[in-house]
Amino acid sequence: MGGDIRIGRIAGIDIKLHWSLLVVFALIAWSLATGGTSGTATGGTAADWTAAVIATALFFGALLAHELGHALLAQRKGLEVEGITLWVFGGVSTLKGEAHTAKDEFRIAVIGPLVSLAAAAVFEAAAVAMSALGTPQDAIAVAQWLAVMNVILAVFNLLPAFPLDGGRVFRAWLWQRRGDRAAATRSAAAVGRTFGFVLIGLGALLFLLGAPLNGVWLVVLGWFLFGAARAEESHVLLTAALRNIRVHHVMSANPVVLPATMSVQDYVAHALDSRFTAFPVVEATGRVDGLVTLRRVKAAMARGEGDVTLAQIAIPLDQVPTLAPYDTATSLLEQLQGAADGRALVFDHGALVGIVTPTDLQRMLDLALLRGGDRASGR
């Protein structure tokens, strides 16, 4: 997601913060400093602010531990973990691919809430120990607040609202029972969307009853759950529909290439006579050097660089997704995520044989979804 701030790596996993988390951190710290972890503070003293900042930092540390539980177990089950992003609604572990079995899905989903419950137990034990040792009340209150918040985090995530952890547990149960992940996803996503609508309704009711802040928060959370359930369902169903589609089914074969020495101005004249807007750029030897697109040409023209060569503005080949004709369509989608200009080149034993453009990709997605719909209807 946009606006991510990378803060480090743990076990080879990128850890990022979304900018929204900084806002939430400030709001939680302010709420604790002025209201106290036990709800008794009145003025927001320096001691209150210190306790509030420590409590907030420890809470987000526990949230990171929750997500690391998912990510590390996913790695053990053979899934590639791209990273973890902490943001306004908690945390997201970005996995490449899906769990291989329903049991793996269940274990990966349930480990996060179990980590949160373990953190709650640790903080509660710390509160009891500090109380016995006569530690200042502010420190005890912080530990108790963290214990409660981690229990809330675990319980909330265990709600059967896909794609929350509880929703994934529910999907794993349906998957194990029916033997069909796509059908299980449809059912779990329907429950998730319903839960989202319920939260939106409750939020609207709270707003009308005079609790606008809580109401708006529930509406936003409900809308997020509704959208996330729908997006996750679409992704899983699309992956199932793409299972037997290969890159050579998608690509535009034998793409037109342009010499690396051609000027930007000459590209404009050439493109007027072509239906294409993206071209592989080749050196005099015929070796592909990169990819030039209309977007990059427009940027060069806007800078007054009509006389520079295509080689100077092209996307270098090592930054262009490259595939083989018999690679899967799902691997194509994975490589195109975040790719510059949304194009991929296809090589067969080192020879350029095709290009995949957004138009090719959209045609593939539309046909794959129709194909998936036909299968679901039994046609």
Automatic annotation (TrEMBL):
Family annotation (InterPro entries): CBS_dom (IPR000644), CBS_dom_sf (IPR046342), Peptidase_M50 (IPR008915), UCP006404_Pept_M50_CBS (IPR016483)
Kindly list the cofactors needed: Zn(2+)
> The organism sits in which domain of life?
Bacteria
Record membrane topology: Multi-pass membrane protein
GO biological process, any? proteolysis
Q: Which residues cross the membrane?
A: 21-43, 49-69, 108-133, 139-162, 183-209
The UniProt keywords, alphabetically, are: CBS domain, Cell membrane, Hydrolase, Membrane, Metal-binding, Metalloprotease, Protease, Repeat, Transmembrane, Transmembrane helix, Zinc
The protein here is known as Zinc metalloprotease
- Provide the species name: Raineyella fluvialis
